[in-house]
Amino acid sequence: MSLAVKVDAFLANFWGDPKTSIERDLVLNFKKLLEEGALDHQERMLNLLAIATSLESQPLIEFARSELVELGLTEEMILEAKQNAAIMGMLNTYYKFKSFLTPELVSEHYNRAGLRMQSLMKPANGKERFEQMSFAVSVVNGCPTCVSSHERALSDLGTSKEKIHDLARMAAVTKGLVTLKV
Q1: What DSSP string describes 90-140?
Q2: CA–CA gap between residue 56 and residue 68 (Å, rounded)
Q3: Helix, strand, or coil here: 38?
Q4: With pLDDT > 90 as the criterion, what percentage of the chain qualifies?
Q5: Span 61-115, pLDDT tens digits
Q6: Which of 34, 106, 133, 181 is most exposed, with minimal Cβ within 10 Å?
Q7: How is the chain split into domains, by residue range?
Q8: Which of 11, 52, 133, 143 is catalytic?
Q9: Which of 50, 81, 146, 173 is catalytic?
């Protein structure tokens, strides 16, 4: 079954028939981001899984996970994508906290995070894909420090601006779609 058919079936089941122009825009944007663009199919699904986990959307988690299994990714790789939402949730929350403080206060009292982050060193999905997921989840969580840091890391790894832009759009559209389901 083609990806377009699977996406259509998922959206019909998850969403039904969009009734408003906002619903239509979000559904069509989501469909487009999953079916085309600079990201490959594995990258789309890994990032969708990380974003969906961050947004606690079980239907999207199950859809992305089933696609990743079908693509032949290992359980370790799939689990890492899910758990990326947790480690980035911790870091996004902490670095957002720091961004609310004056630079003087940060340098005097909160200069060192002191949080364990070993998982970022040897990711199962490789450095670039881990950075992609970290960037996308940081966009969803609205952490300017982390978004900037992961965008820079992706650029340093040679990731195209088109891929980075697709990741930001995927995070934004998925958040919008999930928000309408609340």
Answers
A1: HHHHHHHHHHTS-HHHHHHH-S------GGGTS-TT-HHHHHHHHHHHHHH
A2: 18
A3: coil
A4: 77
A5: 999 999 999 999 999 999 999 999 999 999 999 999 988 988 888 888 887 777 7
A6: 181
A7: 3-180
A8: 143
A9: 146
DSSP state of 20: S
CA distance 106 to 4: 48
Determine the residue type at 8: D
B/e letters for 2-36, b = 16+ CB within 10 Å, e = fewer, are: eeeebbeebbeebbeeeeeeebeebbebbbebbee
Q: Is the pLDDT of residue 117 over 80?
A: no
Is residue 102 part of the annotated active site? The answer reads: no
Interacting residues of 8 by C-beta distance below 8 A, sequence separation 6+? 31
| CATH classification code of 3-180 | 1.20.1290.10
Residue 45, pLDDT above cutoff 70: yes
pLDDT confidence of 152, banded at 50, 70, 90?
A: very high
- 162 catalytic per annotation: no
**Whole-prediction pTM value?**
0.93
